[in-house]
Design goal:
single chain, 458 residues, mainly alpha, 17 helices
Length: 458
């Protein structure tokens, strides 16, 4: 009896030490999360984020996001310091609700949910936090309501609402039910796939009809969604175009995988080993995960739409879901860290580079404006920026080695204009004039001429 008591006490002591170690890991993850959020908030939102837009009509008719369109006056007023953290909190809530039924230790659930927050594609998306906050908020809400809403109602409702905010989030909805689906029959898996597809079709149709009714009412001639040029839509019209779009979608997936593995070519090996170990015992679970991973790429084949890197959230989330199958808690921690470290480092690297490029621009402009005229848009009718776009882009590329400056329009649209937007200048008050200079010196001049303000970048 005494021996049994000693054994129980020893087990309890080991468990306590393990929990202490676990909470320390949680603390470290939280510290890294706060640091990365701080770096992300050093710069303002992206060049075409809601605060810098006069109207959402053009975006609406090219994307069909009717909830964002309706809420545009409200969303654009949300400060970045509120919208960005809120988006990250919603990602954490979604991750926590999905992972909670799959892991016993709550601290480990928190760690995996924070790993989800550090997926670099989320920090890319949240450069448009006011646009994303409604969609990611709905995703978190659906995760919390899974026990209160029927399976069918969840997929159909989320299809309509997420296509009206940010469609890529819809492809994550099956993860809310993965614990149930992994224990279900083959018939239930087939039913799930059919309802999932039905929700996708319903959301797409409602978005198309919303655009048609709006354009008919406003312009007198209705039309459906007309995708922006950068999406490079190539709809299927014969067998050859079908295979071309499959190849195009596979290329999008490949770009996603290569981005995630850029820190190490061995990035996928630990997760792949866990997949091999569990492929028979957890086949249904893994099947649902693979459906989720490839769903967004399969969904665009018919239209041939480009999937931007930031929308490829299904792959890294799928890797996290596979890592959860590691049989022991220490193994789960180890595999979690093989994902958390590269994800958090990539997130830091992206935000630091985003900040650095704008620091370089400010370092050229602000010394030339000691009177702060660029911060006084109310005093002038127009600001006219004169710059040799080609040579200045090359100059910035040499300083930063950022491929963003390989496209000369990015200097104007992504850097110069957003800098002025920050101080209250409107789109129609800014004119960028492409001039020719012998060489770029990295200096600027600010001049006033009547109601016009001139910024000359030499």
């Amino acid at each position: 009896m005494t021996d049994l008591v000693h054994r129980l006490q020893g087990a309890y002591s080991r468990n306590q030490k393990w929990n202490v170690a676990g909470y320390f890991v949680v603390f470290l993850c939280i510290v890294v999360t706060c640091f990365n959020m701080h770096i992300a908030l050093l710069e303002t939102v992206a060049h075409d984020a809601l605060p810098f837009m006069e109207s959402y009509a053009g975006k609406f008719t090219s994307e069909g996001r009717w909830i964002n369109f309706i809420l545009f006056p409200l969303l654009r007023q949300i400060p970045q310091l509120i919208a960005f953290p809120l988006c990250n909190v919603f990602v954490f809530i979604f991750g926590y609700q999905v992972i909670k039924p799959l892991i016993r230790e709550k601290w480990l659930v928190v760690c995996f949910a924070l790993t989800l927050v550090h997926i670099p594609y989320f920090t890319m998306l949240f450069k448009w936090p006011m646009t994303l906050v409604a969609g990611i908020g709905l995703l978190a809400l659906f995760a919390c309501l899974r026990e209160k809403i029927s399976f069918t109602a969840m997929f159909l409702t989320s299809g309509i609402l997420l296509f009206a905010t940010y469609p890529a989030f819809y492809f994550l909805i099956p993860l809310i039910y993965i614990a149930r689906l992994s224990e279900g029959s083959a018939k239930q898996i087939i039913k799930f796939v059919c309802i999932w597809i039905a929700g996708y079709i319903l959301g797409y149709v409602v978005a198309q009809l919303a655009v048609y009714w709006y354009t008919l009412f406003i312009g007198g001639q209705g039309h459906f969604i007309e995708f922006a040029g950068w999406r490079k839509s190539t709809p299927v019209h014969n067998l050859i175009s079908l295979f071309d779009n499959i190849e195009k979608s596979a290329g999008n997936f490949e770009r996603n995988a290569l981005y995630l593995s850029r820190l190490s070519p061995l990035f996928f090996i630990p997760v792949f080993l866990i997949f091999l170990i569990n492929v028979k015992q957890k086949f249904k679970y893994l099947l649902v995960v693979f459906f989720v991973i490839f769903s967004i790429y399969a969904s665009v084949i018919a239209l041939g739409v480009k999937v931007p890197l930031r929308s490829g959230i299904t792959l890294p989330i799928g890797l996290i879901m596979i890592a959860l199958l590691t049989p022991t808690s220490p193994g789960k921690v180890l595999l979690m860290m093989t994902l958390f470290i590269p994800f958090s480092y990539s997130t830091y690297g992206y935000n630091y580079a985003y900040h650095e490029k704008r620091v370089v621009l400010r370092g050229i402009i602000e010394p030339a404006d000691p009177n702060g005229y660029l911060k006084m848009p109310e005093r002038f009718k127009k600001v006219i920026v004169k710059v040799d776009e080609q040579k200045t882009s090359q100059y910035f590329y040499q300083l930063t080695r950022s491929k963003a400056f390989k496209n000369t329009t990015n200097l104007r649209e992504h850097y110069i204009k957003p800098y002025l937007y920050t101080y209250g200048w409107k789109e129609n008050e800014i004119a960028v004039v492409d001039i020719s200079v012998a060489h770029v010196t990295g200096k600027a001049d600010v001049e006033t001429k009547g109601d016009n303000l001139y910024l000359i970048i030499n």
